[in-house]
Amino acid sequence: VQLQASGGGLVQAGGSLRLSCAASGRTFSNYDMGWFRQAPGKEREIVADFTYNGGRTSYADSVKGRFTVSRDNAKNTVYLRMNTLKPEDTAVYYCTARLPWRTTYDYWGLGTLVTVSS
């Protein structure tokens, strides 16, 4: 499956953005999906992920209550809605996919940069 994230940009602290990730190439609805981010000088970290059937959704503690993931299987797209953004949310955001029985995310798209100014 091929993934392409979009929607990043520059936003002031307290603002909102919605990232999109368009998938192609395979049956999108069969895949668990995730969002990761990597800030300058830091390791990549998971932001949120959810199962192919929506049975489980999890968020990093740092974004709980502010970020929401969703998917539209008809459009082969997943979204990451980010509210109340903070400067520490500044990072390159990546969407990922894996088949449900896999423990690691095997498919990665090019990231989209989110910059939050204070």
Q: Which terms summarize this structure?
A:
single chain, about 120 residues, mainly beta, 7-stranded mixed sheet, 4-stranded antiparallel sheet, globular
- The count of strands amounts to 11
H/E element sequence = EEEEEEEEEEE
Strand content: over 45%
- The helix content is under 10%
Mean pLDDT: 94
Distance between the termini: 37 Å
Low-confidence stretches: none
The description of the largest β-sheet is: 7 strands, mixed
Number of helices: 0
- Mind telling me the C-alpha Rg? 13 Å
Shape: globular
Secondary-structure-based class equals mainly beta
Please explain how this structure is put together.
The chain is mainly beta and 118 residues long. The protein contains no helices and 11 strands. Strands 2, 4, 5, 6, 9, 10 and 11 form a 7-stranded mixed β-sheet that branches. The radius of gyration is 13 Å and the shape is globular. The mean pLDDT is 94.
Q: What is the element layout, followed by pairings?
A:
Elements: E1 2-6, E2 9-12, E3 17-24, E4 32-38, E5 45-50, E6 57-59, E7 67-72, E8 77-82, E9 91-98, E10 107-108, E11 112-117
Parallel strand pairs: 2-11
Antiparallel strand pairs: 1-3, 3-8, 4-5, 4-9, 5-6, 7-8, 9-10, 9-11
